[in-house]
Amino acid sequence: MGDDGGGIVSVTGGAGGIEARYEDIETLARLFDDTGDGLRSWAWDDKGIAADGDLVESSVLSPLTFTTAEAAVLKATIGPGGLAFEAVDLELDALAMQANVVILRGVDDLQRQAVELLDYLVGRTIGALGPSVLLLGALTLATSPGLALLAYLNRDELATMSQEQLIALLEEHPEVVQHLLNGGGGLVDGLLDNLPPVVRDALLAQLGLDPLHPTTNDIAGDLAALFEDTDVSVTEGGAAGEEARSLAAPGSIEELIRNLDKTNSGADGEIDIVRIEDENGVRYIVNLPGTDDFGVGGAAVRDTLANLQLVGGEETAYARGIREAMESAGIPPGAPVALVGHSQGGMTAVQLAGNPEFTDRFNVQHVVTAGAPTAQVSHLPDSIQALSLENTGDLVPLTDGEDNPDQPNRTTVRFDHPTGSVGGNHALDTYAVGAGLVDDSTDPSLVETLQQLRQDGFVGSDGTTTTSTYTIARTP
């Protein structure tokens, strides 16, 4: 466990995020506008007092009093400083606030588009300059993303660096890797530019690839389409001879991640569904580990093909198997569910939470991810709270090439816990440390997230648990 000063680098989104503040401004603007409408209505109604029959008749008896009363009514309603003027001021303030939010959102969007274009152009330039180097580097990307590209860009300086020094450089400058990976579509387009036009066009036609890939998501989807996916089989229970897991109800977010680590220790394709029952009812935590196999299209359902499909926004065999396992576990409609995933498991959790067909069947209330790129899912329903943990030295969360959306129901916490190795920076032990920092944090977004997890009974319950293990695999 630690404190913010020693580990948490940044918190975006959630109750204290920019988008939440934009929404607060819009709510205040609506309140001003509604108040202005009410004041204008009152001004019109009160102005009618000046034409009241009894008041007009009294003018014969007391002209001076009538004139004074008439002037006071008009001043209070439509005169300077009256209700009508106040109504206009409030409505102008409301209009100004709404306009400012529109402008700020527009600036954010323009900035994002500018970064996307710049990353694409850089990627395309690199691809056009060094096809042989980059093709060789592509073989390295699966296990250490970005190392080959950085080595190419700084090959004279980095040639003398040890592996430890190179990893330290990446830990200190993860944004370099993020931008390079965000230009993945341009990189491939640049490589193809080196081919004679006739050969390039024939290759694109043969493979069924698009000629232009503006984003990494586009090229990932195109590459995933080159491989045929299969159906899945889902069996209850873990590997033969494996001791059955019994996961206790987590008392903190750190314990939630440590439970996920226990699931991750199982055989390839295993997931755990934890049923928690207490005086407040029954709820389910679904633990989803990450990539098992860096091959493509084999029996392992958590492979590189699934990673490409997820970045490309496509459904995976893993996701289909998870749904089938949850059906087999007998999770009833309406029962609260939390999806907790590491790496590819976190990507899958967020994709499922953003799929209306899935959420129509399962009442997903929370998603917690560790070391997972999730920006490719641009929106989650307001009813779902998502917490994403990212270690600054971990390259995997950067592979979507973008920061997570800043939304009131999506909180991203970046913490600094370097281990000196690519695998160590991505390990669930490391993410348990980051989760402990979240438990201790006083940041408003993190306090609200933890409070919601406790309120909904996924953290801090003293109930009994039942753990069911399911193994998901591709059919031959």
Chart the SSEs and their pairings.
Elements: E1 8-13, H1 18-47, H2 53-61, H3 63-77, H4 83-129, H5 131-141, H6 147-153, H7 155-158, H8 163-172, H9 174-182, H10 184-193, H11 197-207, H12 216-224, E2 232-236, H13 253-264, E3 270-278, E4 281-288, H14 304-311, H15 317-328, E5 336-342, H16 344-353, H17 356-361, E6 363-370, E7 385-391, E8 410-415, H18 422-426, H19 428-440, H20 444-455, E9 464-474
Parallel strand pairs: 4-5, 5-6, 6-7, 7-8
Antiparallel strand pairs: 1-8, 2-9, 3-4, 3-9
Protein name: Alpha/beta hydrolase
Structure description:
This is Alpha/beta hydrolase. It comes from Nocardioides daeguensis. This protein has 476 residues and is of the alpha/beta class. It has 3 domains: 18-105; 130-214, no CATH class; 231-474, no CATH class. Helix content is 53%, strand content 14%. It has helices at residues 18-47, 53-61, 63-77, 83-129, 131-141, 147-153, 155-158, 163-172, 174-182, 184-193, 197-207, 216-224, 253-264, 304-311, 317-328, 344-353, 356-361, 422-426, 428-440, 444-455; strands spanning 8-13, 232-236, 270-278, 281-288, 336-342, 363-370, 385-391, 410-415, 464-474. It has a 9-stranded mixed beta sheet. A hairpin with a 2-residue loop joins strand 3 (270-278) and strand 4. It is globular.
